[in-house]
Amino acid sequence: MTRHLEATIESFPIAGIFTISRGSKTQADVITCTITENGVAGRGECVPYRRYGESLEGVLADMEAAADAVRNGLSRQDLQRQMKPGAARNAIDCALWDLEAKQSGQRVAQTIGATADTPLVTAFTLSLGEPNAMAAEARKHAGRPLLKVKLGTDNDEPRLRAVREAAPASRIILDANEGWTGENIERHMALALELGISLIEQPLPAGRDAALATIRRLVPVCADESVHATADLENLRDRYDAVNIKLDKTGGLTEALIMKAEAQRLGFAIMVGCMVGTSLAMAPAVLLAQGTDYADLDGPLLLANDRPEGLTYEGSLVYPPDPLLWG
């Protein structure tokens, strides 16, 4: 029997509003890919991202265009050559990993040398808002060991001071989402050093980040929008200290594993991050994140409702997926 690919759009309400420097959202719109062969089904999930020129309709069309190749036995290796990196390839790649695991009886964790039962500490994200509102959220989550704070305005000082005062013991990652400029980055970086910030993520716009090679990086800087796939890494060594690997950027776990190994070889610190999606999207990323410096895999914690067979979270600990979910 040949394989069958089905792709469907699903929406999951966010608990409240999720805001970054580029805008706000109240629901996570995802595409679920299911590949079935001989009654066995593998699943993957992706989150199309408008910032990268993606839309739900466009990604869905890309996945449906690949259906014939999947039906004829497309391998994960062939997939890398036939589809560009991005959300569509990610969902298909992860569905193929899941299908292979279910057919072989060998967990993905075992295949890639990860552990199937060891939890990770994940960052918990605080949305961009007014200083008082951000302080209130930080205070609510001050017991978490790692917070990720969304910033990216011309003057983030009152927000950052309010958050640090409300969560004095937490390690903090700042994510400016390309919102800072050459005029304010050194001021914000000095403030980050003063307040004991651990990492600054994508402070300047991708393609306009050359200043990072010439200023003193008082706090380590992590590339997100500036890095998508393995080929990007070499040219970022002069301006970034870390890279954020996301499956929706790399186009799946297959490429992400290669990128992780190369980033480690080049001396980058590594964060494994996510879009706002369900546990199905996080599951392969939890395995990828083992042995890295930062995991930012709190997508399901931001939702009002996750998938019923979702990942297990205990505070800021996230456990690898159960086979009923993925892998």
Structural notes for this entry:
There is one protein chain. With 327 residues, the protein is α/β, with parallel strands linked by helices. The protein folds into two domains: 4-111, Enolase-like, domain 1; 114-318, Alpha-Beta Barrel (TIM Barrel), CATH 3.20.20.120. The protein is built from eleven helices and 14 strands. The chain has helices at 56-65, 67-71, 76-82, 87-104, 108-112, 131-140, 157-166, 185-194, 247-250, 253-265, 279-288, and strands at 4-20, 23-37, 40-46, 120-121, 124-126, 146-150, 171-175, 199-201, 221-223, 242-245, 269-272, 294-295, 313-314, 317-318. The strands form three sheets. Strands 5-6-7-8-9-10-11-12 form an eight-stranded parallel beta sheet. A three-stranded antiparallel beta sheet has the order 1-2-3. Strand 1 and strand 2 form a beta hairpin. Helix 1 crosses helix 4 and helix 6 (131-140) packs parallel to helix 7 (157-166).
Task: Describe the SSE topology.
Layout: E1 4-20, E2 23-37, E3 40-46, H1 56-65, H2 67-71, H3 76-82, H4 87-104, H5 108-112, E4 120-121, E5 124-126, H6 131-140, E6 146-150, H7 157-166, E7 171-175, H8 185-194, E8 199-201, E9 221-223, E10 242-245, H9 247-250, H10 253-265, E11 269-272, H11 279-288, E12 294-295, E13 313-314, E14 317-318
Parallel strand pairs: 5-6, 6-7, 7-8, 8-9, 9-10, 10-11, 11-12
Antiparallel strand pairs: 1-2, 2-3, 4-14, 13-14
Helix pairs in contact: 1-4, 6-7
